[in-house]
Protein 1
Amino acid sequence: MKTCAAIALLALAVARPVAAGGQVVAQARDSVTHSPKRAALYSTLLPGLGQAYNRSYWKLPLVYGGFAAFGYFIQSNDFRYRLYRDAYNVKYSVAQLKTDDPDYDAKKAALEENLYSMFTSVPIDRLQYYKNTYRRDRDFFIIMTILFYGINIIDAAVDAHFFTYDVSDDLSLKLQPYAEGCYAVSPLRSNPHVGLNLSITFKK
């Protein structure tokens, strides 16, 4: 009798700290207020700020690295687009001159002063092709930057939702002592059985 009771009390003493520890963790997490709306607002005002608010500091190099890469491609394609656009405009203006005009040579020379020598022998149709290509690529990367900006906001909001999500190991852990056979009269049940009963419940 006393042996069964002592073992049962010992098991109960072991079980209480586990349950208490789970309650402390749950209370500590419940006391944390983390707003997904605030995280989304922060990333809207300044990309990466929502990730910093969520303490996902490892995402900051990805956010700013992505914007830096898109910014580079936008600037590079825009520079080439303007270069070929200006050359095309010069060639187009020269093509509109009338060859029978007495001032034809002077007007042509004045226009070609703004033309880089590298474009002198390039046909106007090729200039138009490269002009349209670089403009298309520039616009594409602008669209990608806008999408990346939106993903930055969505990521901050979703990450904030999971910031307070309880994924602790003792979320649904119930540890209880049990004693069996302590009061049995039958010789077959004369030996006491004591131990711990562990049950885990998965919450939706």
Note: Confidence is low (pLDDT under 50) at residues 1-31.
Protein 2
Amino acid sequence: MNDTLDALAARIAHLEDLEAIRHTWRDYCICLDSGDWTALGDVFTEDAVLEMDGINHLIEGLDGRYHGRRSIIDDFYRQTGRVLPQGTNPKFVTGHISTNMQIDLQGDEATTLAYFFEIVANDRVLIGTYQHRFRREADRWRFGFLRISVRFRAKLEASEVGGQSLTGIRARPV
């Protein structure tokens, strides 16, 4: 009987870890799309590394490696707002659809592969992959490494772009 309970407890712990990893990934997308840099920083470990491949067409020099949470947020993510055309409202900088996350969980670490579809700067589409290396920390799973690879990009015909900010939508009670 103890073996059965131990096996069940291990299976539940495994499922809880998988869900916690997915939760961190969702937090990343929502915080990025909301421009919540403080909360976005919280999904990364202090010593995390971000590797960007395929965005130099928008901002020259942004491809590369960023070391540490502060650099990732300040030197990479805060700089991505520079892709906005003159006079564009920043609430439309980015919007993600992220899917197909494959998770390989090994104790206190996990590696993943996920796809993304993103609209940036109101008139660009990026399609690519996220590769994560997660690490369990005392309070949550965090990214120790994130590689973003753009596999496809295109400029769209766009006029009269409008809508609502994710921040404004999230601020309304449900």
Note: The mean pLDDT is 88.
Protein 3
Amino acid sequence: MKFLDLAIRLEWAAVAVAAVVFYAMAGVSWWLFALLILAPDLSMLAYLAGPRVGAIAYNALHMLIFPLLLMLAGSVFGDATATAVALIWIAHIAVDRALGYGLKLSSSFQDTHLGRIGR
């Protein structure tokens, strides 16, 4: 693994740790965390409709813009649940990136913006 790849993965690992620490500080139930940590991966079911639809659905739930907007809304409106869900979502995305999983290309589930995954 090249130095830059390692540095980027370590950055995402730090984001994941920060999201979990902020979640812990929020005092929200860990059952919610356990229930939702893999929820964004349900978007993989859209691949049943084909790689293009699957990539769109997967990417929609694996981009930071939506959980960041949710976290902002939760903070502005004082909604602890929205903030907690956003932190769980951010943690999920960050762990994926730290493991080398990127946004999907429409050619195949294995083709990502970070390169091909799997064999």
Note: The mean pLDDT is 93.
